[in-house]
Design a protein that fits this description.
This protein is of the alpha/beta class. The protein is about 40% helix and about 15% strand.
Length: about 450
């Protein structure tokens, strides 16, 4: 091991290394907490001055992480939030937690990764360890970040070190978090891998060393492709079994009694969040470079993207049964977050569902106890304020459409006051005394 690597390894072991986390969102903020908890001095960088201000004030902006997280970070004396890239110049390790979205043509958009790497390249000191956590196709760490960081004659493995360590956050989950979720680390060379393992081992209970950065990149994609494909399977079966007069939720519950060889996945109104709707396309894109077509990925994406339209068709059919047209009907949507018990609306299928309902002339309102306002998004112009869930709001709706089954929603009130419920989550199966007509979608 060269001198630069030895020096950094010693600083990590003594908790003297300064760790910078770039991107203080759903991935970066809990990572910063874990690194502070491990005893490191942490620089939290974000381009949004408002986030920096809130962290300095001890004000939370990600509710699922706890109301006291910002206060804990501020009062630790080891956390410095900033939007000034010059503050990264003292960092011994820099961890990139930035978005990797798709562009308008479903192609990978690495703009945030490239800009972050360029920023680090401008200010980094010799011997820095850089870790990319943002999900991307195999070869991104080595082939995209590496050359940017190697500007001005720097050599990877000697002047700087580079690893990929994929985030595995699941917003709202209580049993697993950053510090106790097993962590993959793969470097572009042996020294980088050893340093990456040392850094993450200080803050994470279990760290698994992979053979290379590319193995870690592909593993993260496989995790999410596995979920996307299996969700697509039950989404495809949902209308088939419905037309046979069979409830897919009962089928899944029955199949899940098998103690081996089966894992339950559940249908829904479409995919949401920062991973499942996006990540599989990164591998699909890269596969074409090598002359391969990833048919499972493409088919799963096609099926899952059809679900919002299927849900709206089911709403129209249910209203027709009540002799009501979609045009002019009042539809109250329950839950707009992409999953239960969080305020996260990234890629939420509710955006597509509400857009389609409006296009057909429905008068749409929503209630979500975690999201007070549905803002306009990159591809959608929603701009709705949430309404209070009252008996009057439920009775005046021609249809109550369940998109997200938050625990905080007053389900007994929904069961007693609504007239027609279209349920995409099988939420009403858990409620007694349902007076409404329930249509599953």
């Amino acid at each position: 091991m060269n001198q630069a690597a030895q020096n950094l390894l010693g600083a990590i072991d003594r908790r003297e290394a300064r760790v910078a986390v770039v991107g203080l969102g759903y991935v970066g903020l809990p990572l910063a907490r874990a690194m502070v908890g491990a005893g490191f001095r942490v620089i939290g960088f974000d381009i949004d001055p408002e986030k920096v201000r809130m962290l300095n004030d001890g004000t939370p902006y990600l509710k699922h992480l706890g109301a006291d997280l910002a206060i804990q970070l501020r009062d630790s004396g080891r956390f410095t939030p900033t939007f000034n890239e010059a503050d990264l110049a003292v960092a011994d390790a820099v961890i990139l937690c930035v978005p990797t979205p798709l562009d308008d043509h479903q192609q990978p958009d690495l703009t945030y990764v490239e800009r972050s790497a360029q920023m680090v390249s401008r200010v980094m000191k010799p011997g820095v360890l850089v870790s990319l956590e943002s999900t991307s196709y195999p070869g991104t760490t080595r082939g995209v970040c590496g050359p940017i960081l190697a500007q001005n004659g720097r050599r990877v493995g000697e002047d700087f070190f580079l690893v990929f360590s994929p985030e595995r956050e699941d917003p709202g989950r209580r049993d697993f978090h950053t510090a106790n979720t097993p962590r993959l680390v793969g470097g572009v060379d042996a020294f980088s891998t050893r340093l990456g393992v040392a850094l993450y081992s200080a803050a994470v209970a279990q760290v698994i060393e992979t053979q290379s950065a590319e193995v870690a990149e592909a593993a993260k994609l496989l995790e999410n492709i596995y979920r996307a494909v299996n969700i697509a399977l039950v989404n495809e079966l949902k209308p088939v079994l419905h037309d046979m007069g069979i409830d897919i939720w009962q089928v899944i519950r029955a199949a899940a009694t098998k103690p081996f060889g089966y894992q339950p996945f559940y249908p829904g109104p479409g995919l949401g969040g920062h991973c499942i709707p996006i990540d599989p396309y990164y591998l699909s894109y890269k596969a074409r470079e090598f002359g391969h077509v990833t048919r499972f990925i493409e088919l799963a994406g096609e099926i899952n993207h059809q679900m919002p339209r299927y849900v709206v068709d089911r709403v129209a059919h249910a209203l027709n049964q009540d002799r009501k047209p979609m045009n002019g009907s009042r539809v109250l949507v329950l839950g707009i977050a992409y999953k239960p018990n969080v305020d996260d609306i990234r890629e939420t299928p509710a955006a597509e569902v509400i857009t389609l309902l409006r296009e057909r002339g429905a008068i749409v309102s929503y209630h979500d106890p975690h999201v007070a306002r549905f803002p306009s998004m990159r591809h959608y112009r929603i701009d709705l304020a949430g309404v209070e869930l009252t008996e009057d709001a439920l009775r005046s709706a021609d249809c109550v459409l369940i998109i997200t089954d938050h625990d905080a929603i007053n389900w007994p009130l929904v069961a007693s006051a609504a007239g027609l419920i279209v349920d995409t989550r099988d939420a009403m199966a858990k409620v007694s005394g349902v007076r409404a007509r329930v249509v599953k979608a």
